[in-house]
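Hi X.,

You mentioned you wanted examples for the new student's onboarding notes, showing what a folding record looks like when two proteins sit in one file. Here is a clean example. The first protein comes first, with its sequence line followed by its structure tokens.
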Amino acid sequence: MAPKGKGGGKAGKGGDSGSSDAKAQGPKGGGNAVKVRHILCEKHGKAMEAMEKLKSGQRFSEVASQYSEDKARQGGDLGWMTRGSMVGPFQEAAFALPVSSMDKPVFTDPPVKTKFGYHIIMVEGRK
């Protein structure tokens, strides 16, 4: 009986500390990360074209491969990015978006303007 009790205690402890740690670190930028994809276009017109493709139901990764003008051409995947590692407007938009899938992406509309150009951003995960 004792090992069962121990196991339950451990699991409860781990679960509690994991969630409260993430929340506690959030504002400082310690444990806040998002898994981001984006489509970056230098010209507003091109970003709007990409936006139309997304709205017509094309997969985010396909549109990113066709339209994005940066190194994240492989479907626009930027991977996990933490608070403080992105330019201001991009970061604000990324952390404001809900988590969504490539089949039903929730993306920034209108595109977010930064010094790099116009970004259409979607978030695939959060931790």
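Then the second protein repeats the pattern, sequence line and then tokens:
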Amino acid sequence: MGSERTEMRKRQTSVAQETPSSTQAQPDEGNQGSNACCFCWCCCCSCSCLTVRNQDERTRAASHEHRTDAIPDSEESSTPTLEDVNAWSQSFDKLMRTPAGRNAFREFLRTEFSEENMLFWMACEELKRESNKKRIEEKARLIYEDYISILSPKEVSLDSRVREVINRNMLEPSRHTFDDAQLQIYMLMLRDSYPRFMNSDVYKDLVQLLSEKSAEA
């Protein structure tokens, strides 16, 4: 009996000594597996990031091309008459109603580095004429990126209330998403830029040119 108990103790001691070593070996194997999985995940993540980045770059390039062609340097219009040009001095509304008036005013704004106000107003008018839902959403997004985003070099000056309205409207863009902003920019041009335009060389030279042509006729 004594020898059997001694033998049993030896076996228990032997098993107890072996167990820690096997327990220590398991975490190593687990760590290796975890590292391998982590490596694979990182590779997949990197590939995914590169794919998304490339897609974003292509989207931005396409958007840039679309924006470049969206509004021409000047609208097609017939040459204004002296009567037309004199009418522009009567009200800002009469100036903005005609393509020739908008072209002349836009040329003046360009000299003051505020052409983006007219471009934004024109983009809003174009949006209002759109009827296709998908096109409305796309144009609204481009207008936001070009004229509302604080990151845009062509950002127009809007107060915080109007910006909040736009941000809410952008959740479901429509033809009237920028109505409040368009009105605010219109009033800004009316009060600030229009009086200077009437006293500018751009306007005076045009009046003189048309007056001379009228006298010759």
